[in-house]
Amino acid sequence: MAELDRSYLARRLYGAEADGTFDRARIRAVVTDGALGAGRTLLERYPNVEMVGVFGVGTDAIDLGYARERGIAVSNTPDVLTDDVADLALLLMMSVARRQITADRFVRDGNWGRAGLPLASRFSGKKVGILGLGRVGRAVAERCEAFGCRIGHVTPSARDGSYLRYPSLIEMARDVDFLVVTAAGGAGTGGMVDAGVLEALGPEGALINVSRGSIVEESALVSALDSGRLGAAGLDVFADEPTVPAELLGMENVVLSPHRASATVETRQAMGRLLLDNLAAHFSGRALLTPVA
Ligand code: 8YV
């Protein structure tokens, strides 16, 4: 299933409007995704929109306040993608620890038998700190427990006693080997992982982000990795996708991924089905299956 070509869709959508072959008043629902979103500017163009269906769990790119003002229902696709996102977080942690991308290229470049590779690090038994113990964060924790890792978290509202809860992000960063970002994006978490947190994570630490690039101060991340103040990173999301800071492209201690955490056939089909089921529910007068509060 091809990834959504967002620029093509935008050109077709606004292009059609420009030549008058598109009656905005007839639009009753907007389908978007967790990255493209639906802000006030877009929703204002469609006076009769009743619903926004998000193909994804993140709603930070949806103007929920304006949707509420307009009485526009919003649905997303939680749960069906939780396992895939947590799996990718584990894949990034292990790839970073074992330097697997470097090892792969070492063999492909024909260097095996001609040169040596530095030793990697063990993943099992490491200390993992989770920023945001929600559905995905909990799934990451359960996976890490199977590898004998010690789990901690920082979560504003969690009352869960299952794992060590740190009083602050910087205290957790000081104490763990991996800091995994699974918190929801949006105004409440923007820039939470700043230079101080990255410094606290330190030269032996690694940042893993499978949520939103906005949660990390990306310039501070690049600087910390470049200077060695931070040991490594595994990143599936970035501040200004699809643009990735050029400095990261040359770093051996960084594993990069193009916002693919939910991009498996099974999950994307399940997300699509859930999105369509929400649309069908709305237009048949039933409650949404997965409404966004
Ligand atoms: C994207 C995501 O929505 O679920 C989210 O919030 O970020 C992703 O699943 C997905 O890649 C569709 O573009």
From TrEMBL:
Residue stretches spanning the membrane: none
Key words of the record: NAD, Oxidoreductase
Domain of life: Bacteria
Gene3D superfamilies: NAD(P)-binding Rossmann-like Domain
InterPro entries (UniProt xref): D-isomer_2-hydroxyacid_DH, D-isomer_2_OHA_DH_cat_dom, D-isomer_DH_NAD-bd, NAD(P)-bd_dom_sf
Pfam family, one: 2-Hacid_dh
All residue ranges annotated as the D-isomer specific 2-hydroxyacid dehydrogenase NAD-binding domain in the record: 91-261
Family: Belongs to the D-isomer specific 2-hydroxyacid dehydrogenase family.
PANTHER family linked to this entry: 2-HYDROXYACID DEHYDROGENASE YGL185C-RELATED, 2-HYDROXYACID DEHYDROGENASE-RELATED
Name recorded for this polypeptide: 2-hydroxyacid dehydrogenase
